[in-house]
Every structure is written in structure tokens, then in C-alpha cells.
Specification:
Blueprint (H helix, E strand, L loop, with lengths): L2 E2 L8 H4 L5 E8 L4 H5 L2 H9 L4 H14 L7 H5 L15 E2 L2 E7 L2 E7 L3 E10 L5 E10 L2 H27 L7
Antiparallel strand pairs: 1-2, 2-7, 3-4, 4-5, 5-6, 6-7
């Protein structure tokens, strides 16, 4: 079961985050999941972020419909920018779903997007010792009033999605196709 947590000191998101930014962190144990402990971070991110969670996909579709007239980037449009490379070969600039890859390390991948109202980064960080965990940390740099209002509006949904994605990842088998 996922829980609210602190950003690991080793996460590169620490250099992106400033005190005015929004940050939240959730984590879940990887005990009993050697496949997730040993997976390439791009494969782990794809496993987490591309899960078919019906209610989450419905919310993202609704979000896209509501924000498109406001000039915000939509998940559908961003996903079309995905390269044809296998997930394990994607590098900074490529995408996993609608998330742009900014950095890949052995135990962390940083994804996100920049838009006129806010920039966000999502770190998926894996600790292996002493107890294996995966952390999903989101940092939002709001640029204007709309960025603050947007985040306030989506925050309850974001929190539910973040914890559900983590819980789903440890319940589901890791796809070899990724």
C-alpha cells in the first residue's frame, strides 16, 4: 500500500525543486518484486504510467477536453510525439506516454512537461537498500495565477492517481513487451 513520503536525498529532483514550488511524494514497498527492483527505469516508468486504469484514463480525457480551449497541452497531443523506439532505448527528449524524458539514471527517471501555466517534473526513484521502495515525486513550478488555480483544482485527483499508480504497479505483472 502506497503512502505519503519524503523526497529521497539522492533524487536529482532536489536540484530542480525550490521552496516556492509544489512538491508531493508517494512511495510503495517493492518487497517480493525482484522484477521491479531489477527493471530498467524506463521499463519501470512505462509499467507504472501506462497502466490501463479506467477511471484515471477517463479523468485524463475529461481534463484534455476542458483545457484544450485554454491552450494547454493535452495528453493526447503529447502522446503523439512518442518515438517508435523500444521503451528501454528511449532517452532524454523521447516520451513514455505523454511524459517527456528529462533524465535517466540507474535508479531514477525524471519525466515531465513545460507549459505556459506551470512546468512539472515527475521523478520515479527506486531505492534498493535497506528496504526496496519506489518513490513517485511530483514537483510543479507555477508561473502565474492560472498555474496556481489549475493545481488547486486537480490536486485531489492527482493525489489519488499518484497513489493508485504505485499500488497498481506492485500488483500487476511487469510486461515483457515494454
Amino acid at each position: 500500500m502506497s503512502m505519503s513520503d519524503k523526497l529521497p536525498a539522492e533524487s536529482s529532483l532536489n536540484t530542480y525543486y525550490s521552496s516556492r514550488d509544489f512538491m508531493d511524494v508517494y512511495s510503495v514497498s517493492l518487497k517480493g518484486r525482484p522484477d521491479l527492483i531489477d527493471a530498467d527505469m524506463r521499463i519501470l516508468a512505462d509499467h507504472m504510467l501506462m497502466a490501463d486504469i479506467g477511471w484515471m484514463n477517463t479523468l485524463l480525457s475529461l481534463r484534455d477536453t476542458l483545457v484544450k480551449p485554454l491552450g494547454l497541452k493535452t495528453t493526447t497531443t503529447l502522446a503523439l510525439e512518442q518515438s517508435g523506439k523500444p521503451v528501454a532505448e528511449r532517452e532524454p527528449g523521447d516520451r513514455i506516454g505523454f511524459f517527456r524524458i528529462y533524465q535517466v539514471r540507474d535508479n531514477e527517471i525524471v519525466l515531465g512537461e513545460d507549459d505556459w501555466h506551470q512546468d512539472f517534473r515527475l521523478s520515479i526513484f527506486r531505492s534498493e537498500w535497506p528496504t526496496p521502495r519506489v518513490y513517485a515525486s511530483t514537483c510543479c513550478k507555477r508561473h502565474n495565477f492560472f498555474g496556481h488555480a489549475y493545481l488547486a483544482l486537480i490536486l485531489p485527483f492527482h493525489k489519488k492517481i499518484a497513489s493508485s499508480v504505485l499500488d497498481n504497479a506492485v500488483r500487476q505483472e511487469l510486461s515483457e513487451a515494454a
